[in-house]
Each structure stands twice: as C-alpha cells, then as structure tokens.
Write a structure and sequence with these properties.
The chain has 329 residues and is of the alpha/beta class. It is built from 13 helices and twelve strands. The chain folds into two domains: 193 residues, inorganic pyrophosphatase (n-terminal core) (Alpha-Beta Complex), CATH 3.90.1640.10; 122 residues, Diaminopimelate Epimerase, Chain A, domain 1 (Roll). The radius of gyration is 20 Å and the shape is globular.
Length: 329
C-alpha cells in the first residue's frame, strides 16, 4: 500500500460501509476514515452505512461521538465505496447492491484473505497481522502525513481496545500505535468509561438461561459448550467462556433469523490452530444461507435455519478437526 494507490479515492462522494451488527472496530474505523477524507477534501460528501444495526456498544460510541451512521444510503452515484472491517461479502447483506455500481470499490480489512473480495475490489488493503482494522486506518493517516486530532485518536484507540480484548492480545506494532495515540491525547480512562457497561436484567437473565441450557462436550483436553439462546448471544458466550470453557457456541432463532456467536480461548487457538472465523463460520454460514466470519477466537453467523441443528453441526465440525489435528495436546 502506498500513498498514490489510495489518496485519489479519498475525495468526492464516498460511501463507507460496515458489516452487519457493526462492532466498535468497524464503526471506529469508518468514522476515523471519514474524518481523514474531510481533512484531504473539505468539500467531500461522505456517509457511514451498516446493513441492519450496530451492536449495543457501537450504539453507545455512535451517541458519544455524535457519529452520523445509517442503514439507508443517501449518496447517489458515489465516486468510491469503501468497505471496512468486513471479511465476507455476505456480511454486507442488502448493502452489497452498492458494490454493483460503477464506483471504485476499496476494501480495508484485517481478517483472512477472501477471493471474492479480491476479484471485486479496485483496491484490497488487507493486513492479517493487525489486531484491528483501526490499526490500518491509523497507518493510512500516517501515510498521508496528517496527525489525527485528539477525538480521532480516541476513536482509533477504542477500536483497537475492543478487538484486542482490552489489550490482552496484539503485536509490538499494535502497542506502538497505542502509545502514539495516547501521545495524541487519547486516554485509557476515557475509553474504559465508554467500553464499560452495566448489564441490564434481561441480559443477565439471558446469560443464566444459556448456562442452564448448555451441553458439554469433552474432547480431551478441551471443553466445548453449546447452548440455545434467542438473544444476547455474544454476551452469553463470553460469560460461559469465563466459567472455564475452551470453546463456546451460542445460537438461537429470533423471529425468522438464526444468529450464532462463537468464542474460544487464546490457548485453544494457539494449541489447535483452529480459527473460528475460517474453520467454522464460513462453512456454517454457507449451509445456513447467511453471513459469517470473524477472528480466530471470536466469530458470528447470521443466517436461516434451526439453531439446534447448527449447534450440533458446529460441535461435530470441531470434534472432527480436533480428532484429525496433530497439534492437540
């Protein structure tokens, strides 16, 4: 990636798209990129889009920083469509239609390489070593030789904090970027206040229900948990992981839609080589006619079908991979 290869696209009419259920890294990357576009071209017209909704935490970030984001495109004939933090075209759902126009198509991501995206993209900026897409956006600011203002520094730090699990994972480059953002005025106390949340009663009840319904599989030395839950799947998955599971898969049907959240420990990923986004959500999302993807230790699926069937299939895939893997202890 060089300055000339991207700078020409960061002007004019630009639509910036996040994946479904946009998480903080996606929202923060989109907003920081939008700010950079206006630094480069003050007359630019921009919009931030996501296909259905943002996560609860992302909604809090959107409100805190007064970010304008919508599910409804307003720009007609955009010069450039930029997709951030999205590892699969299916994750764009209805907004995929914006990619069938004559606009330049830029993808900025840190997930696994996707051949469909590569085929479609005018420019595919991919860094699989980055812990968050916000790292890549920071790099682009640096390439343009523009110093991010304090607010942008704080937003970038938020995105990195979220995807690094509050800085529990990352590379030496990650922490150099974090140090630079702190020097620009971002504060750990500031982002901690935004990221910390108090669970309401409905979320606490959902977590308890998921624990009550869980099915335990033992594939020595690993503990795999599945549970059927119709809401708060990511929160419940994190909760059960903290109870001592190595892998957690929570799925449920909400109206006509099937939603699943997958989590594993870093130790499980390191010792087995199993990448939840690649090994589970990609095949499962195809089978259940939806969108799926994510990271080695955190992934999600939106699709259609029976939640119990997905849970059984996911457990079977895991058990089969573990049985064949030579890396299991």
């Amino acid at each position: 990636m060089d300055v000339d290869s991207i700078k020409g696209y960061l002007r004019g009419k630009v639509s910036i798209i996040c994946h479904h259920n946009a998480d903080p890294d996606a929202i923060c990357a989109a907003y920081s990129l939008e700010k950079l576009i206006h630094e480069l071209d003050p007359r630019a017209v921009t919009e931030i889009l996501y296909p259905d909704s943002a996560s609860q935490l992302s909604d809090r970030i959107i409100n805190h920083f007064n970010i304008e984001a919508s599910t409804h495109p307003r720009i007609v004939d955009a010069d450039t469509v930029i997709v951030v933090d999205t590892g699969s075209l299916m994750q764009l759902e209805i907004l995929q239609s914006l990619l069938h126009r004559d606009s330049a198509k830029i993808f900025i991501d840190h997930h696994s390489f996707d051949p469909e995206i590569d085929k479609l993209a005018t420019l595919y900026i991919l860094d699989e070593t980055a812990v968050a897409s916000c790292e890549i956006i920071y790099d682009i600011w640096q390439m343009m030789k523009i110093e991010p203002p304090k607010e942008v520094a704080e937003v970038l730090l938020l995105g990195i904090a979220f995807d690094s699990k509050h800085f529990s994972i990352g590379t030496s480059k990650t922490f150099r970027i974090v140090a630079n953002l702190l020097e620009l005025g971002a504060t750990l106390s500031g982002i901690r206040e935004i990221l910390q949340s108090t669970m309401d009663v409905s979320e606490r009840v959902a977590r308890l229900k998921s624990a009550q319904r869980m099915i335990l599989y033992r594939v020595d030395p690993w503990i795999i948990i599945t549970s059927n839950l119709g809401s708060f799947q990511p929160s419940a998955a994190r909760g059960i992981l903290n109870l001592g599971a190595d892998v957690v898969i929570i799925a449920g049907n909400e109206k006509e839609e099937l939603k699943a959240s997958l989590r594993s420990t870093e130790e499980f990923h390191q010792k087995t080589g199993i990448h939840l986004g690649d090994h589970l959500t990609k095949p499962l999302s195809e089978h259940y006619k939806g969108a799926g993807g994510g990271h080695p230790t955190a992934a999600g699926i939106n699709g259609y079908g029976d939640a119990d069937a997905l849970l059984m299939e996911a457990a079977d895939i895991l058990k089969k991979i573990l049985a064949q893997s030579k890396r299991v202890l």
